[in-house]
Predict the 3D structure of the following.
Amino acid sequence: MKKINILIVFIITLLLAGCEDFLTRDPLDSITDTPQFWNNEENIRTYTVGLYDQYFEGWRSSWSRTDWYSETNIADWNDNNAQNAATFFTRVTPATDATNWRFINLRRVNILIDRASNSDLPDEAKNHWVGVGRFLRALEYHKLVSKYGDVPWFDAPLESNDMDQLYKQRDPRVTVMDNVAADLEFANNNIRQSDGTAGLTINRSVALAFTSKVMLFEGTWQKYRENNTAKATEYLKIAKDAAAQVMSSNKYSLTPNFKDLTTSISLAGNPEIILYREYEEGVLMHSLMSFQNTEFQGNSPSRSLIDNYLSANGLPINQDENDLFKGDKWFFDEIADRDPRLHAIIDTDGLRLEGVATVYAASGYFTNKFVNESLIDKPGGMSNTNITDAPIMKLNEVLMNYIEAAVELADMGAYTLTQNDFDISINKLRSRPSTDMPHVTLTGNTLSVGGIIVSDPERDADVSPLIWEVRRERRSELAYEGNRFNDIRRWGKLEYADMVINPKVNLGAWVDKPRYVEWYNEEFSPAVPLTIEDLDNIRLDRPGDAGYIKPISTEALMRTYSEKDYLYPIPTDQITLYQTKGVTLTQNPGWN
Amino acid sequence: MKKKINSFVFLLFVTIGCVFAQSRVSGIVVDTSGDPVIGASILIKGTGQGTVTNIDGEFTLSTPNDATLVISYVGLLTQEVPVSDNMRVVLQSDSELLDEVVVVGYGTQRRENLTGAVSSVNVEDAVANRPVTDIAKALQGISPGLTITNNLGGVGTESTIRLRGSVGSINATGGTSPLILVDGVEVPSLNLINPSDIESISVLKDAASASIYGTRAAWGVILITTKQGQEGAPRVSYSNNFAWNTPTRMPELMSTVDNAEYIMKVMRRTEPDRNVISNIGYSIDELAIEKMRNWEQQYGGMSQSELGEMQLGRDFEIRDGKTFFYRSFDPLEMFTKKWTPQQNHDFSISGGGARTTYNIGLGYLSQSGVMKINTDEYERYNVTTNTTTTIKDWWKVRTNVMFTRSNNSEPYKFTSGQYDAWFYLLRWPKWYPYETYEGKDFRSAVTDLKQSNRESISTNYVRANLGTELIPVENLSINFDYTFGLWNMYQKRAGGEVVAYNMFAGAPISAYESLYGSTHNRAIQSSRYTYSNIFKAFATYDFSLKDTHNFKFIAGVDAETRESLGHYSERRDLIDINMPEIALATGDQYVNSVAYHNDFAAAGVFGRINYDYLGKYLLEVNSRYDGSSRFPAGKKWALFPSASLGWRISEESFMEWTKPSLSNLMLRGSWGTIGNQDVAANSFISTMSSGNSGWVMNRTNVLYLGAPSVLSPELTWERVTTYNIGLNGGFFNNRLNFVADYYKRVTSDMHTAGEALPSTFGANSPMINFGELTATGIELGVNYRHNFSNGLNLGLSASVSNVKEEITKFNEEANNIYANYKGRVLGEIWGYETDRLFQESDFNADGTLKDGIPTQELFESGAFTFGPGDVKYKDLDGDGKISYGSNSLEDHGDLKIIGNSLPRMEYNFSVDLEYKNFDLRAFFQGVGSRDFWAYGSVAIPTGGSGFADGAFSHFLDYWTPQNTDAFYPNPSNNAWISNGNNFLRQTRYLQNMAYLRLKNLTIGYTLPAQWLQAIKFQSARVYVSGENLFEFDNMTIPVDPESTDYKPGYGSGSWSFGRSYPFSRTLSVGMQVNF
């Protein structure tokens, strides 16, 4: 009895004494945020790689889509595609918006900068990682500013009780972009020339290339949207210099075949690629190719995009001197002797019409910019199991950033253009073996090709002939790469995306139904001949059996734009929340 | 204690009994009303010899003079009496439960002395006589306050168990569940327990009775004990049950013609000029509708086997590069079984000698799935053994070993996270081709099943307990127990390929190909383990002072550790697809990030004092000093006290006048606080999650670490305080009993997101101890039992419970109606009140609304505008437009609370009848109110992908200019819409999930003892039983009213609502024999 009592007392004492230890169970499968963790460069690398797919989405994965080609706002809200059903700019101010008014990644990036700065790494390594962090922060703020204009600037992770910072007013756009420019400058001076796997890791060239993109956006925005010539000049100079640094580094060169950039199973070793996203069967796969392979195209090239492409003689299709263009009333005439880059983005075997082709296109033109022919009937090219790699930053975009910044600077009198500027950019692109287009010559304030001044009768009167042609080249070279919406916004030309103002957005191929039926039956000799009735579902822009395909006929169903569409609305829940603290979070103009 | 006396008696019997001669005894057995008990079993204890009473209740028997007789009868309490001359044995009715001993935390308590809210389950009625496969299903509706929901049909599925409310703490993801202890130790799932092994079930509902178990008992405790051996000759029993299940109800697809017309209508809403529509390889136009009609007339009467393969021209044709299908299929009829079998068998042996008793139980269960092809199979095996050995009078040793193995085998799923075959059989219209063409399959869910290998999940649970009890002095017992538990789940998946005409590629009879790619040529193995160690030591001491002051003390310690880990591995390119082993694959290898590893420890010191004065005034005080590894250093320990009081009013002298009608009346009250450690893991340490970055380098998805989590340094325990007031009463010798409880449970210092922070913070607000959730509820139970003199025994019982959970404190100023806010009643559904359907007369000629009709343009888009036949919502705030304001409490426009998704007023009642050898039990269970806003195309007519998914017959009553009084609106495209267009959350299409259901009906027959003696059986009963035989409900869609959840699928699993594994009605037969 006594022994037992002693035993009980002993056990209780033992348990209580050892309890604090016994009850201490540190996490076994998650890393704790400690200073030691950040003193290891490989750990920082592991943290940083988690941010890559946030900024370098490529083609995302599975069925999730990015801004390439179609089916996201940025991809759709422009003039590249005719659409079966119009996508509309945001119409009402959302109550919440966790996808755009979002600071989660900013926090992640600021933590990277903070922890790397305070680590005990050697200076070179420390500056590299701080540089990577500041580069990503610049990308984050570029995204926020391009959507919202003024946004609050934070250069450190916020504490949950720092109410002054949390409820800070929006900083002026220029203040934020000056900070972005400073971040980029630091990044461009400190990020290693090479680091990690080439093409898949942030290095100096990646930072410079993105600098040209970000600053071109902001420079032109300042010029066209804000009328701030001083800032426009400053930013465009940064853009041009950064592009020039990439170009003069000679690390990258154009790849011979234009289409390889967007259809390769592997982009490793492609000399033009500065950064790409790798896809691998069973590891990470996307669906972009499927939408240009096995899926019906409710969005497909518009008249506006097709007409952008020059004739093979380097002249706009409708320029008087152009005797090569055979008109757009018959598909094979229309695509004959055109810029080969047109052939690289559409199916040249013929139109894909409703009633004829199982997989048809809204405009009749079937785009295939992302189709790798060898995968067409394989799982790697179908469904959500596509395996082609995604280019994220490439030399051709840098060249176009360079020349556009240059002509815009020249337009403001801040730079004198030379023939060399065109030779190292547009003419270089045109020398690409698969493109092989005539070179342009700077002739006064215009360009000429083979002695003929390029003068497009369709030119927007607001835009100088020189800038007009540079923009055309950009569109031809970079179509469907997710730039167009931001391009027309920064140029102050959102009206191009308005289906009423710019009817070409809502027009497709010219279809002469009797002629098509006759051609079809002759060409394919089908067991059951095609009839005109089979084409009944194709809606044309005029009465009768011939006309341009016009997918949307009711004006009420067409997309129109208004001035407020240049900026996104700030979600109302945030405005309400700020009000509870007595702070006014201002809404963007035109939204309420 | 009782066992000790028994052993003593037994010893006495063995040593002395053989000396004396045999003699004949006679006697009579009566019940409490003096009526003779016919057919009562009389057994000489420790032997197999015995007899039964005759029609006058009399018996005679040769026995040793000092023998003990065991007298039993169904529905009456078994008695043991020493032989004497002219015996008169009064058997008490089972319902006279007052003397019953109820299992409570660390001991037992006489029912009359219970001061906490404890209910015990009649295992015999609830479990033993029903064809239930897991106890959870049997407990549904059995104990007031205990809510069991079987959200999902299907084999081997888990039930959700809630006690006194669904949520408990808003921070507990997935709600809070009571602690389930089997023989004092937690089990991972009730599915692991064989219902036949159960001896008793108690439900500890208030803090006062549960707090002795500490933190994990914050939401109550279900105590289950397993059968122990009884001293005596070996008793062998066997029972079985054969059951057949059939779906309670399933949606029905529209006929081909109706469906095609429906789709055309949907399409023309947005594209009036379009004439043809195509989706995943099939097309529809007006000509096709005509041909479907013709097909129906010509071949509609023929069976699929008569029709044979798909014939081009007859069943489908190709026009203009499009494929049109005309033939009609009924996929449910073709591919699912009307009745699916299930069987279980249980076998047990128990007995023991003077020093050792034992019980061994074996169980087997098998269930088969509903698909005709490659169906699911579920099997479970149980072994349970309990032995107790008395080494010395003061020293006992016991062991308890439990082993369960279950195996769930099903066809390999080619797309992870995709819905199961049910979804797809009910997704496509009836013309979807389920027959082959030229010997080749079309792509379909059935083709996948046909060609797929199997995958299986097996679960093994083994638990070994070693315990000892020391009784150093009288009334003091000291117990030590150690239990080791190992739970393991092992999944094996064998991939392969499916080759078919790829409908989805848009070219039905050209693309005959492998559908899912070579990545499925693989073997996958993954496993999960949980190891637990549980140690308990406690001492019990009781004594009385002058027989008026009775004391009972318990003091003890317990400690537990639990470690869990899991891994996943995969290898591609099998050498032989029929040997899916990692060792026999040649390709790339993968490990998946589902790997995890964590560790947990808890410990506590506890004590309890029970005191009563003359059995009239009762007091119980508990206290527990509890520690958990979930909390940071310095905050690991906390003290949680509780107390309860009881007053047996009926024992007071001033209540004398109520005798004998009032047998018992007791008022009780309790208060207690328990800490809740059921909070998210790593709530107190800033950790960085890891996972696949989605960034591939060198063919590897590179690992990344996420942002460190944001913590509040102040965070500490949540506290759960329960106040309970109860009243028990018994009348007429306790033939009529009632129990009533009212309680209030306050979860305070709840872990809630701190003050809402603006998006600029870049993370969720860190958790703080702030919120408060109050649950208030009532529970009432009544039962009545009467034995009529003609031999008819009647039992009636009913109970009802209700609980409401409301947030009484919350740190949120925005008062968003879809988030938590102070005053929010959990489960509330905000929506619009439906006015009616728009009619043509509401519109002007140009399509605009007539003056005075509130506009609904806020919900219009390019693709949808309101017109005749669409839903008209009520403008409750009268501002001329339908709007949600700012979705806040202060400004919610026309929104109002239209219902509540949590079950209210749960009730049940049962009738038991016994007459002669027959017994009948009917058990009804119901939910008084519950609403549900259902998603998915069974609830919301969708249109579906490309407008052209299958539509259901119950949508046929849709608006047309001719059918203006329809239930459903003018067809429009609501693909993947859950809350928009015509189907904004609203009163008209809100599902009322209240129901009353005959849960169980059992009719049994006990074979007469005379027959049994011939075949040496002690007793035998055969029965037929039905589960879910019928119900009353108000569903407007063909979905079972208990079905409130979904089989998970990709995107939102909710889309499969009504298109997942069905609920079943079950018919079964079974027998129970003892020999």
